[in-house]
TrEMBL record, chain A:
InterPro entries for this protein: MetI-like (IPR000515), MetI-like_sf (IPR035906)
Family: Belongs to the binding-protein-dependent transport system permease family.
Gene3D superfamilies: MetI-like
Membrane topology summary: Multi-pass membrane protein
SUPFAM superfamilies: MetI-like
Alphabetized UniProt keyword annotations: Cell membrane, Membrane, Transmembrane, Transmembrane helix, Transport
Cell membrane keyword on record: yes
ABC transmembrane type-1 domain span: 70-261
Subcellular location(s) per record: Cell membrane
Name of the protein described by the UniProt record: Carbohydrate ABC transporter permease
Species the sequence originates in: Exobacillus caeni
From TrEMBL, chain B:
Pfam families: SBP_bac_8
Protein's organism: Exobacillus caeni
Keyword Transport: yes
Family that this chain belongs to: Belongs to the bacterial solute-binding protein 1 family.
UniProt-listed InterPro entries: SBP (IPR006059)
Protein name: Extracellular solute-binding protein
Keywords on record: Signal, Transport
Domain of life: Bacteria
Length: 277, 428
């Protein structure tokens, strides 16, 4: 019993230490946004005596069309998230349910594309998008985001779908349902935790994406938030309080999405007891 | 991290070469298809002006140019710095590069070698433009005897001293020679300063003013050979002198990327001397609610003279036209116009130093005594070696310089090695 408490203390000490390590930079960042102008990073005594105010947030929000870029990003990341998770689920389903020639090879090719660094692929990708006439359109951006995202979500969801008992499908087949019904009634509801996780990955991945967006989108008015964020960085000096304030606005949606979906993480797949014996 | 970026840039460029090789350089620019009537040419212009500069560009430069040239419309796009080189590479290889771009002077020869830029030497009125601007910035556009751009604004760095520490060291004015600088640094450090000479880092932009002023040289005059110049006895002596400062504790931690940064150390009376461009005054002077007033708290002077005189490094931007542009004539019209007196005068309002000699020497344009010092320093400032392989060569030199600063390599060995590698890179 005593050893148990001792172990607990150690575990909690580690957890608290971890928490402090992770949260300190974030708090430092938030405190920096309360300082007037900071072209060199402020020192701890300046930071911790700053009076909380929203001046910098207001400046940033009204500067460089920040609001417009925020909405652009919401549209781009929203569609890309739904697209890549939905298509990824369909693809994963086919890899789990169907047998077709070259299935494993195809899957390997899928995985292979995940391992190519973005910068290497950007010139060929851009050439393809240009030949499709999709430069400077969100369609071009979605094509790349969803195309890239499907691979990841297929890989992730295939593993999850394989844990769904086959017997559950048989109940649908008995009732005369087809693959679509199985997918919709069995796989999707049972995979909510995995889908939630995937949605967060897909959203934060496209929400933060800078390089492809800047390459494909040529019009200033159509740019996304990460580009607007980078605009706050100057060649010789950057106003850190602005950059940090803008960054905090930019990560808010990701935090909200995380809170919305985080409940799903801890739930199991609801399949316990679904099949007898 | 820096190395990684270099690597990425290198890979990106090789991809570009591959891609342009495949497409045979065919390009169909679609600029002009969006907006504007048929007989009006739309020029796509990428720039990286800052907030204040962009206001002048949008509200004064653009209307003025379009009024004088009713058949041309400017489409301005401000690009962020992050990954900019790769953006240009992607744009060029995809045939979606803009017509014009204002790019850092050190990029021009590299892009010229790729075949991405338009040779401007043959255009009407080129020689006049060439003769109207400062020689050194113009030289940064040269590649294999042809000019691929024109300098649109220039800058350099001068020495900036913390007034309080300078007085503690017993000086009332900026040191004029390297001996005085060393003497002042020794006294300032003894009096408690965290650093005497704050060299901004171990990269060429930061250390070249000291290297050159102490007598070092990079290459022969036509930039074709490093061996015998970069590792000449004078160059070795220059690096040894800087290494000695480092050993004696005169150099601030910034040279190896340490904290506080140059501005931070200057603001908090910790560093005796930093070197920086005119933006030090314009940015910090505009800092709201700051107690630090750069013009009152600092003393400025030319880079202290050593065996090599007082020599600083040239920065700034060139205007280039891309080879794939459908409107090279109109693009040239704009580039030429940007270098004339009026636009140069307008951009000088935002603190950019004109490249047009007449404008820069007009006392009305440059009334500020500090900006006058920059213009004076420009007379002896040198460009970083304008060769296409510069970014790779720079990486080699920087690394060896850093090793010397860390005491891991002696100056002679470091420079011999760098010269050899630089020469072999130059052959590529």
């Amino acid at each position: 019993m005593k050893g148990n408490i001792f172990a607990k203390i150690i575990v909690y000490a580690f957890l608290i230490l971890g928490l402090v390590v992770f949260i300190t930079p974030f708090i430092y960042m938030v405190m920096t946004t309360f300082i007037g102008d900071a072209y060199s990073l402020p020192r701890p005594n300046e930071v911790f005596t700053a009076v909380p105010n929203l001046d910098n947030y207001e400046t940033v929000w009204n500067k460089n069309n920040f609001f417009r870029y925020f909405m652009n990003s919401l549209l781009v990341a929203g569609v890309a998230t739904v697209g890549s998770v939905f298509l990824g689920a369909l693809t994963a389903y086919s890899f789990v349910r169907f047998t077709f020639p070259g299935k494993e090879l195809l899957f390997r090719v899928f995985l292979f594309t995940m391992m190519i660094p973005l910068v290497l692929a950007i010139v060929p990708q851009f050439t393809v998008i240009k030949n499709l006439g999709l430069v400077n359109t969100y369609w071009g951006l979605w094509l790349l985001y969803i195309g890239g995202g499907v691979v990841g979500s297929t890989f992730f969801l295939r593993g999850f779908f394989e844990t769904v008992p086959k017997e559950l499908e048989e109940s649908i087949l008995m009732d005369g349902g087809g693959n679509w019904t199985i997918f919709r009634r069995i796989y999707l509801p049972l995979s909510k935790p995995a889908l939630g996780t995937m949605a967060i990955f897909a959203f934060s991945g496209t929400w933060d994406e800078y390089f492809v967006a800047l390459t494909i989108i040529k019009d200033e008015a159509m740019r996304t938030l990460p580009i607007a964020l980078m605009m706050f960085q100057g060649k010789y000096a950057s106003n850190w309080s602005w950059i940090f304030a803008a960054s905090i606005i930019a990560i808010l949606p990701v935090i909200i999405i995380y809170i919305v979906f985080q409940k799903k993480f801890v739930q199991s797949g609801h399949t316990d007891g679904a099949v007898k014996g | 991290m820096k190395l990684l970026n270099k690597l990425i840039a290198g890979v990106g460029i090789s991809t570009l070469l591959f891609a342009t090789g495949c497409t045979g350089g065919s390009s169909e620019t679609s600029s002009g298809s969006d907006g504007g009537s048929k007989d009006k040419v739309v020029l796509d212009y990428w720039h990286t002006y800052s907030d204040q500069e962009e206001i002048i560009l949008n509200e004064k430069i653009k209307p003025l140019f379009e009024k004088e040239h009713p058949n041309i419309e400017l489409k301005l796009t401000r690009m962020p710095y992050e990954g900019l080189k790769q953006q240009v590479v992607a744009g060029v290889s995809g045939g979606e590069a803009p017509d014009l771009m204002r790019m850092d002077i050190v990029w021009v020869s590299e892009f010229a070698k790729m075949g991405a830029l338009q040779d401007l030497s043959g255009f009407e009125g080129f020689d006049e433009v060439k003769n109207s601007v400062f020689e050194s910035p113009m030289a940064t556009n040269l590649y294999e005897g042809k000019y691929y751009g024109v300098p649109v604004n220039t800058n350099t760095k001068i020495a900036i001293y913390n007034k309080e520490l300078l007085e503690k060291a017993g000086y009332s004015e900026a040191p004029e020679t390297m001996e005085q600088l060393v003497d002042a640094s020794e006294k300032a450090v003894k009096a408690g300063a965290k650093g005497g000479i704050a060299i901004g880092g171990s990269f060429s932009w930061a250390f070249l003013p000291y290297f050159w002023s102490l007598g070092g040289t990079m290459t022969n005059e036509d930039y074709t050979k490093f061996d015998g110049y970069l590792n000449s006895p004078e160059s070795i002596a220059a690096v040894e002198e800087i290494a000695k400062w480092q050993k004696d504790g005169l150099v601030a931690p910034t040279v190896l990327g340490g904290e506080p940064g140059t501005w931070d150390g200057m603001k908090n009376n910790e560093y005796l001397m930093i070197d920086d461009g005119p933006w030090f005054y314009s940015i910090l002077g505009n800092e709201e609610g700051s107690k630090f007033k750069p013009e009152e708290a600092t003393v400025s002077g030319l880079i202290p003279a050593g065996p090599g005189g007082s020599s600083s490094v040239i920065g700034g931007e060139n205007l280039v036209t891309f080879a794939g542009s459908e409107h090279p004539e109109e693009a040239w019209t704009f580039a030429k116009w940007m270098l004339t007196d009026e636009p140069q005068r307008l951009m000088a309002e935002a603190g950019l130093i004109p490249t047009n000699k007449e404008t820069a020497n007009d006392p009305e344009v440059i009334q500020n005594p500090i900006v006058q010092k920059y213009v004076k320093q420009l007379e002896t400032a040198l460009p970083r070696t304008p060769v296409p392989q510069w970014s790779e060569i720079e990486a080699v030199i920087n690394l060896n310089f850093e090793k010397v600063m860390r005491g891991e390599m002696d100056a002679k060995k470091a420079l011999d090695d760098a010269a050899k590698k630089a020469d072999s890179l130059l052959q590529q």
